[in-house]
Amino acid sequence: MKNLFVHHVYFWLKNPGSQEDLAQLLDGLNKLAKVETIQKHHIGVPAATNRDVIERTYAASWLALFDNAADQDSYQVDPIHLKFVEECSHLWSKVVVFDSVDAS
């Protein structure tokens, strides 16, 4: 898929042991998936794999695929995305974003 834009976000919770906070974040991510410019998405939690190179300290991850950078830009200001940030940002202590585009 030429021009594919990949947006991968990792969330660390303020209360890492709280299943309630995690459930609220996951619910928010499920609502976020309704943004029209998202072509595919994945909501995840750390896998049970355990090697030196694997980062497992995050609570949840959000992967969204867009047809192009313009669609991702639109997502950033979409009311659904803004509402997600408003309703869920109090849950996390840290967010790391990895955005990538085609190398060729």
UniProtKB/TrEMBL annotation:
<dbReference type="InterPro" id="IPR013097">
    <property type="entry name" value="Dabb"/>
</dbReference>
<dbReference type="Pfam" id="PF07876">
    <property type="entry name" value="Dabb"/>
</dbReference>
<protein>
    <submittedName>
        <fullName>Dabb family protein</fullName>
    </submittedName>
</protein>
<dbReference type="InterPro" id="IPR011008">
    <property type="entry name" value="Dimeric_a/b-barrel"/>
</dbReference>
<feature type="domain" description="Stress-response A/B barrel">
    <location>
        <begin position="5"/>
        <end position="100"/>
    </location>
</feature>
